[in-house]
Design brief:
CATH class of the largest domain: Alpha Beta
Distance between the termini: 65 Å
Structural class: alpha/beta
Largest sheet: 5 strands, parallel
Number of domains: 2
Shape: globular
CATH superfamily of the largest domain: P-loop containing nucleotide triphosphate hydrolases
Order of helices and strands: EEHHHEHEHHEHEHEH
Bound molecules: adenosine-5'-triphosphate, magnesium ion, zinc ion
Helix content: 40-55%
């Protein structure tokens, strides 16, 4: 399973992007499906699921762990742990994929860097490992599945099938969507397949796995398929905004030939 980012080209350098490879069998040339074909078909079905614009080019190095971003020592320690585990995970991706292990970042505080970090990991996996990566909030993925009920062009089964099989699925904001009658069924279906394949899932959430508002069969699968990592419980969004305001206020208070 290789890159979705190199659509049009074959990541295995076998089929020239046609999706079919020509091999010789008993002296005759026959066309067989290239491995890149399945990934391309999956990618098309999950077209909506890409990293959000804000973090499109974010790399793990951009995730800062200094006292400008986090004020509490405890947050700095946690941010360092998150960053280190993200870096090691990317470096040891093939091994982790073999073990079918992903990561689960959680902290209650909004604006603490969870979406930024999981997006950065996705970008690193695309660039360093040519991985097929799809990103969606859990709510968006479930809504997309629901929208297929009334769209004859895309069957619900196709979309669920793509979410089951994509090499790296990043599910942001787990547990934050309202729980509807089909939520547990669809999530279970997707995660139960992923737990038994050489694919990985990277989660972010504002709660611990055991507190997720899904049924226990889903929570058990997530515990099996991802290493939980406690993220800083402090809002970088708020800290940066405060600094920006403080600087602007200082600037306003330094009178530079006051305009009338
Ligand atoms: N460690 C960090 N280094 C640099 N910028 C950061 C860091 N953490 C967060 N930010 C910045 O703070 C903002 C909020 O981060 P992010 O959206 O990742 O938080 P979140 O934990 O996903 O929040 P929410 O719970 O609201 O989804 C972003 O604009 C991001 O650029
Ligand atoms: Mg977020
Ligand atoms: Zn190919």
């Amino acid at each position: 399973m290789k890159s979705l980012s190199s659509q049009g080209k074959c990541p295995y350098d076998r089929c020239g992007g046609t999706g079919f490879d020509v091999i010789e069998v008993d002296g005759k040339e026959v066309a067989v499906e290239c491995e890149c074909r399945e990934q391309r078909l999956l990618s098309n079905k999950l077209e909506f699921a890409t990293i959000i614009d804000e973090f499109q080019n974010t790399r793990i190095d951009d995730y800062k762990t200094d006292s400008q971003h986090y004020k509490k020592d405890k947050s700095i320690q946690r941010a360092k742990m998150c960053k280190k585990s993200a870096q090691s995970y990317v470096n040891r991706f093939e091994e982790m994929k073999g073990k079918r292990k992903g990561l689960y970042f959680y902290s209650q505080m909004a604006g603490s860097g969870k979406t930024m970090l999981v997006s950065a990991i996705g970008n690193e996996l695309i660039h360093k490992h040519k991985a097929s990566v799809k990103f969606a909030t859990a709510g968006d993925l479930l809504n997309a599945i629901r929208s297929t009920y009334s769209n004859p062009d895309l069957s619900c089964h196709d979309l669920i099938d793509a979410a089951r099989k994509v090499e790296v699925l990043i599910l942001d904001d787990m547990g934050q969507q309202s729980i509807k009658s089909d939520t547990n069924d669809h999530l279970f279906d997707i995660l139960n397949h992923r737990v038994n394949r050489d694919v990985v899932t990277i989660f972010s959430s504002n709660c611990k796995i055991e507190d997720l508002p899904y049924n226990f069969r889903i929570r058990d699968r997530i515990t099996k398929m991802a290493i939980p990592i406690e993220s800083p419980n402090e809002s970088v969004r708020k800290n940066l905004a405060q600094q920006e305001n403080d600087e602007l206020l200082r600037d306003l208070l330094v009178s530079r030939g006051d305009k009338q």
